[in-house]
Amino acid sequence: MLKKLLMAAVALFFILAGSLMLLMGYVFNNPGTVFNAFNSVADRFLQGEAHEENEEFFLQGMEELQLSSRHVEMEVRIYKGSTLKVRLSGKVPRFEAGKYILQTTEKNRLQITFLEPLASHWIHMNVNGQELSKTTDSQLKAEVYLPESYKNRINIETQEGSVTLHLPKDALYELDLQSIQGAISNNLEQAAPAQVEPQNVGHIQVRTAEGPITVQPQE
Questions:
Q1: Alpha-carbon span 120 to 66, nearest angstrom
Q2: Which of 8, 135, 165, 196 is 20 to 30 Å from the Cα of 65, by its Cα?
Q3: Rounded to 5 degrees, what angle do the CA atoms 194, 198, 201 make?
Q4: Which region among 16-20, 107-111, 113-117, 140-144 has the lowest average model confidence (pLDDT)?
Q5: Per-residue pLDDT tens for 19-66?
């Protein structure tokens, strides 16, 4: 009985080894077909799903507002409401769920951080010397709506994400725009009144490492 089991195990081993050799031979002789199949499977697996978050924050007593991210694109607009409204939308990997708007409060400072899905989700393949890598299909954009009555300090920081400010022509803001490698474009011409009260002037500071900074009039 034991001899039969050993013979069966040996036969199964040779069958599996032969199948593996045939499969490897097919892969090396038909890399194009394998890559096409890999692309199809990887695209389906890594395809992002629609994601949206909406948050609202009270700014009473807050002397400073900090908005920060690494890669998330930010668009800032002014509106006539009294609260800070944030909408984060785009695509995230289907196998990663969670909130990407992080709020922290320290004394009179409100910090909003826009997080991103983990960048470690990827597939790498090497067939007969040809390499192909696939990363997750994820991209998020933050739309920030600032109350026009908020005139305290606003700091915006990103690494690679772009920052676009949509400001009314009749609103007064002191702008401080700096980027290490990103382009800076200011297309806003503010209409300065005859008399300016310091408490009516807002202060917006934007810092990026590589992301471009754009200022344009709000429609």
A1: 27
A2: 196
A3: 85
A4: 16-20
A5: 656 555 555 555 555 555 555 555 555 566 788 999 999 999 999 999
Q: Give Cα separations from 215 to 73, 74, 117 (angstroms).
A: 14, 12, 28
Which tokens is 143 given?
């739309």
The pTM (predicted TM-score) of the whole model is 0.72
Contact 77, 145 (CB under 8 A): yes
Which one, of 190, 155, 192, lies nearest residue 74 by Cα?
155
Q: Which amino acid is at 39?
A: N
In the DSSP assignment, the letter for residue 161 is -
Question: Residue 189's pLDDT band (boundaries 50, 70, 90)?
Answer: confident
For 89, the token pair is 């939308």
Q: Which residue has the tokens 């800070």?
A: 84
CA-closest candidate to residue 150, choices 68, 217, 63: 63
Three-class SS of residue 87?
Answer: strand
Question: Strand 101-106 and strand 109-114: pairing?
Answer: antiparallel
